[in-house]
Amino acid sequence: MLEKALTGSRRYWVWIFFLLAITGIGFIYYLKQFSYGLGITGMGRDVSWGLYIGQFTFLVGVAASGVMVVLPYYLHNYKVFGKITILGEFLAIPAVIMCLLFILVDLGQPMRFMNIFLYPTPNSVLFWDAVVLNVYLLLNILIGWTVLGAEKKGIAPPKWIKPFIYISIIWAPSIHTVTAFIYAGLPGRHFWLTAIMAARFLASAFASGPALLIILAMFIRRFTKFDPGKEAFQTLGKIVTYFMITNVFFFGLEIFTAFYSQIPGHIHPFQYLYAGIEGKGRLVPLMWTSAILAVFSLILLVNPVTRKNERTLSMASAAVFISLWLEKGFGLIVGGFIPNPFEEITEYWPTIPETWITAGVWAIGFLILTILYKVAVSIREEEIA
Amino acid sequence: MTMNRRKFLKLTAVTTIATAGGISALELFKDSKLEAQGILPLEVKPLTAKRWAMVVDIRKFTKEDNYKKIIEACHLTHNVPDIGNPKDEIKWIWTDTFEHAFPGQEHKYMPEDFKKMPFLLLCNHCDNPPCVRVCPTKATFKRKDGIVMMDMHRCIGCRFCMAACPFGARSFNWRDPRPFIKELNMKFPTRTKGVVEKCNFCEERLAEGKMPVCVEASKGGLIFGDLEDPNSDVRKVLSSHYTIRRKSELGTGPGVYYII
């Protein structure tokens, strides 16, 4: 089936080479980081995780959100998602690969990454995260490939794949829960030490993932003969709406607990992120952009007129995606380190090499996504023809 | 009973002569090479404890200068680099104000000189260390005697331990530390870029029967000993003085106490 990715329009190849170029630049910067060390990034003694771990966290959510199309289709036989399900499954694959790459580029000693499996440590959440992510990746490759392979031959998917699909439905929330546990169980990091961290993660994942799927599917529909159907977009729009509302609600719960209890340690990270402390507020514009986009998206999503209009739905989806990318891929991780354990403010901002390495990983992700979608779409187009 | 190598050799030689009357043994005895080898440290007795702990007697240190020798001694002994910028900084032992060392404990009306007083900070070698709990490779581990240690060859540099430590005790090698080591101590390993490090309560010195270098340099300001031995110096000090620990409410069980 992969041969379908080897033929394509001029536009397809321009896109592929564009991604390869970004990957190449990112890789050159990675070699620099590899020889110099992680000091090449904006991270330091106080803010010891940054953009890489933020992207990792955000993308685990995107990966997990595949379940939002898989579950209705396979558990409830929701036929509307019949066509779009493969796009959800295939989105999960590059998302998990990007997660693993972001962990790898964040390691100080990447050559030793196998130590996680050579010395398995069940008390470490990171060990479990590595396990669940890899299993989730294998599950999605297996399911996506088998289902599409059957479709190509014009037959129903084999029965033995069903148990794997059910496992993947349970597995999806688990990967994001385990990821939340990386942060939610650390003493002394008040911003992360919250019982609803996993719930927040799932809510933001199930809003941002389907929002991205809407944008991607609309893009595919525009440039190919593949159409997931109007109804599928509408259902996805409703999913995004409900989970975005839940996400904002959960955020409100955090705000209430911090500001009504008035416990300084709980207030400080919010103050730093949304107002700045002692004149230091490098993240304030980003966090307010995120907040404004969240409100803007909800106005478009809650109103049935604008949700049903595909133009405004796509705008709302983009707003949701960018808003949550800023909030989770940046603010949530960096905010956990500010103030530091000494109640001092040390700010963080990614450097140019760090930004290019991040772009490089995203380019690899999009490259894999493009190839997988090309295969899926070509097979669908053959069916139509 | 004491018998060192020299005495043992003499005795063997004499016995050999007495029994066999061999001339070669006599020559061996006279061999200057053997004499020059000196005495091997066969009788070094390591210092051991059930639970090592430290008491910082703040009354003995009122100025930054009092700590200087201690910090220098530690950083020299352990090849801690001086990188010279706070972002990439590596430190095993350092000072900070009361407000920063014990956040939430300060108030406006404290004596001014107390507010400015430096507090010596280092790894707390917790009873229940979060850094050990989160490490995905067991590169950080707790020994039976309470020392929380690092295996620099196993550390993958994920920095989960730095996120987990509520005391900011851990430093990461953001770049190659070796060019920044002023005087190389050949008895202690240097580190490579990409690994985390921190105070090790001088376990390498304890193994040689010596007290931690900071304790030696402090001239009584730092008391070190076995927390589970009622007759140890630390226990005596703890039972006769009011002491506090950093962020004890988090339940990590810090092993460093402060006499205020």
Chart the SSEs and their pairings:
The complex is a heterodimer of chains A (about 375) and B (about 260).
Chain A: H1 10-36, H2 51-64, H3 67-75, H4 85-106, H5 115-118, H6 125-152, H7 161-184, H8 197-223, H9 230-261, H10 264-274, H11 284-302, H12 304-308, H13 310-335, H14 352-384
Helix pairs in contact in A: 1-14, 2-4, 2-7, 2-8, 2-13, 3-4, 3-7, 4-6, 4-14, 6-7, 7-8, 8-9, 8-13, 9-10, 9-11, 9-13, 11-13
Chain B: H1 5-20, H2 23-30, H3 32-36, E1 52-57, H4 64-77, E2 93-96, H5 98-101, H6 112-116, E3 119-122, H7 130-134, E4 140-142, E5 148-150, H8 160-164, E6 171-172, E7 196-197, H9 203-206, H10 213-218, E8 222-226, H11 233-240, E9 243-244, E10 256-259
Parallel strand pairs in B: 1-10
Antiparallel strand pairs in B: 1-8, 2-3, 4-5, 6-7, 9-10
Helix pairs in contact in B: 1-2
Describe the structure in brief.
The complex is a heterodimer of chains A (385) and B (260). Chain A has 385 residues and is mainly alpha-helical.
* Helix-strand pattern of chain B: HHHEHEHHEHEEHEEHHEHEE
User: How big is the Rg of chain A?
Assistant: 21 Å
CATH architecture of the largest domain in chain B: 2-Layer Sandwich
**Largest sheet composition of chain A:** none
Q: Based on helices, strands and strand pairing, what is the structural class of chain A?
A: mainly alpha
Could you say how many structural domains of chain B there are in total?
Answer: 2
Number of helices of chain A: 14
Mean pLDDT of chain A: 94
Oligomer: heterodimer
Net shape of chain A = globular
Q: State the total count of DSSP E strands of chain A.
A: 0
Instruction: Please count the beta strands of chain B (DSSP E, at least 2 residues each).
Output: 10
Question: What name does the CATH topology of the largest domain in chain B carry?
Answer: Alpha-Beta Plaits
Please mark out the parts of chain A with pLDDT under 50 across 5 or more consecutive residues, or reply none. none
Q: What's the number of domains of chain A? A: 2
Helix content range of the residues of chain A, please? Answer: over 70%
Q: Determine the structural class of chain B based on helices, strands and strand pairing.
A: alpha+beta
